[in-house]
Structures are given as C-alpha cells and as structure tokens.
Design goal:
This protein is 71% helix and 4% strand. By secondary structure, the chain is mostly helical. The radius of gyration is 20 Å and the shape is globular.
Length: 337
C-alpha cells in the first residue's frame, strides 16, 4: 500500500510541476545545493588556484559530498515516510521534493517566452536587449553580440540539451527509485535518487567546464554527470521518434542522430540535440562565444533549416508528448512487474 501511495505522490508531483512549476514560497533544493557548491569551490579557487592537484582532488570531495548529502536527505525523508505509515507531512515533503527535481514548466515557459518575443514585428533595440537577457539566463555562452538567428539557435540547443538534464534524466532516476522501493524501503528511492541527480546536474552546470580552474575542479563532476545521463539521453533518442510524425523514418533518423551526436565532446548533449534537430528539421551547431573564446561546435543536420520561434514551440510539444509517453510506459511497467 505504501508503494502505491508513493506512486500516486509521484504522479501528482509531475502534474503539479506541469501546471504550477516551482512555487516561489519554497526554497528550491538547487538554491541550497548551488550555495554549498559555490562556497566550497570559491574557497578552493581562491586559496589553491595554482595547485592543480588540490583542485583536482578537491573537486572530487565537492562532488561526493554534494551528492552524498542530497541522497542522504532524500533517503531520510523516505524512511520516515514509510516507517511512520505514510505520515502526511513527510508525504508533502516528498511531493514537493519530487516536483522540484523536474523542470518541465520552467524550461518550456522560458523558451516559449523567448520565441514569442522574437516573433514580434517590432524587433527594436529594446526588444533585442530583452531577448538577449532572457537567452543569457538559460545558456552558458556569451550572447551579448549575437544576432536573432544565433539567439534562437542558442535557445534551441539549450532546450534540447536541458530537456534531458531537467526533465527526462530526473524522471528516469525517479522511476528507478520507485521500482527499487517495491522490493525494500532501504534501497535508493525516488526522492533520494531524484535529489542525487539534481545535485549531479547542478555540479556539472556550475563547475563542469573545460577552461581555467574548472578543468581540474569540475573534472569529476562532469564525468559523473556523463555517466548518470548516458542512459536517459539514449532513451530519449529511441523514444522521441515514436511521438513524432516521422515515426516511419525511425531507423534512418536514429542512425543520423547518433552519428551526428557522436561528433560532440559530450557523450550525451550531442545525442539529445541531434534527435530533436532531425525530427524538427533544423540545423544546430556552429560558432558560439564562451568567455573570450570562439568555439565551433560540430554541425548537426547540415541540411536542416535555421531555427525559428515556430521550431521552438514544436520542440516544446515534442517534449510534452514524450513525457506523457514515458509516464504511460512507467505505469505499465510498475503494475506488470
């Protein structure tokens, strides 16, 4: 019975995230995780920035401690919930905790807002400035001198990559946690794995870079994120065509997406960007500015069209359809096994 209650809490949390998103009256777990990562990382950079070995092993400590505390907090709440026979307060914590692990509403709303601004007829200087500010919030590259075309491409690349980090990655590990707790409450559960993945994703987004101090400090964080996102990104690859009109081109699209995605240094980002690019018929990749350096990413779907606001809205629809498909499949697996 407790497992069924947990399952219903999970479904409710997905609906809450889809309709409401992150409530402003609650402190988001990412804020707490980010505060801890920043404080420890800044200390290591400011005091040991010239020592690569200390940064390297210090980065491992930052990663393990952040993930460990996130997992431990989630597991503690799960154990209290089960041992107290479905305590309402703990159930509420699990509900909001699981909802905070998924970023459907926030991600889709932010890019749709950018698309709507770009589609306005009055693309004056003030409107372009607002668009750049909104794009800069969701990307790590420097878009201060970007054209509208590049801003749309940047937003699309962020949307397609973060759909895995912010939606399908957490969903996958939450699924695994609910499934494991059918066998024992002492196994990793949905909240402990959800919090852990959120910590891994936050570590990668804050320190998992390949320049300056972060090349050493964020090495382990980036590798851990690669490992824990490997399966979700490939599940997106093989399931996304199922919710698109291009299902009749299934084999061809998978092959092209995988080959183009492999060109990226990241084993996951290229894969997720490529499958969305081929299904929506757009071209991604090319030159982008990071700090003071111009980086040229491999081209994905070279024969595709340039990104438009319409493409962004279509990709948002695909994400919602795929999320719905995943939930249906998980419900079937949960009750069959």
């Amino acid at each position: 019975m407790a497992e069924i209650n947990l399952f219903l809490i999970f479904l409710g949390s997905i609906g809450f995230d889809f309709l409401i998103g992150d409530p402003r009256f609650l402190i988001h777990p990412v804020q707490v995780i980010g505060f801890y990562i920043k404080k420890i990382s800044d200390y290591l950079i400011n005091n040991c920035g010239k020592n690569k070995n200390i940064l390297f092993w210090g980065g491992l400590i930052v990663a393990i401690s952040t993930i460990g505390m996130s997992f431990g907090l989630g597991k503690l709440i799960e154990l209290i919930y089960f041992q107290s026979r479905n305590n309402f307060f703990c159930g509420l914590l699990i509900f909001f905790g699981l909802s905070s692990c998924i970023a459907t509403k926030g991600l889709i709303s932010s890019v749709k807002e950018i698309a709507a601004l770009v589609e306005r007829e009055e693309n004056n200087d003030q409107n372009k400035r607002i668009i750049k500010e909104k794009v800069q919030r969701i990307v790590s590259r420097d878009v201060s001198s970007s054209s509208l075309e590049h801003l749309l491409r940047s937003s699309t690349e962020s949307l397609t990559e973060n759909s895995v980090d912010g939606i399908f990655g957490p969903l996958f590990w939450i699924f695994i946690g609910i499934f494991l707790m059918k066998f024992s409450i002492f196994l990793p559960g949905p909240l402990s794995l959800g919090f852990s993945y959120k910590a891994i994703s936050t570590l990668d987004s804050m320190i998992g870079y390949k320049y300056d101090y972060f090349r050493y400090l964020g090495f382990f964080s980036a590798k851990i994120e690669d490992m824990f996102t490997f399966v979700p990104s490939r599940l997106v690859l093989i399931t996304l065509p199922l919710v698109s009109p291009k299902i009749n081109e299934y084999g061809s699209i998978l092959k092209k997406s995988y080959l183009d995605g492999k060109k990226y240094d990241s084993p996951n980002a290229g894969i997720s960007e490529a499958i969305f690019a081929y299904i929506s018929g757009i071209k991604l990749g090319g030159k982008s500015k990071y700090k003071n350096e111009i980086i040229e990413k491999p081209i994905i779907n070279a024969n595709g069209d340039i990104c438009t606001g319409k493409n962004i809205k279509y990709i948002c629809q695909l994400i919602l359809r795929l999320q719905f498909l995943w939930i249906i499949l998980f419900v079937l697996i949960f009750f069959i096994i």
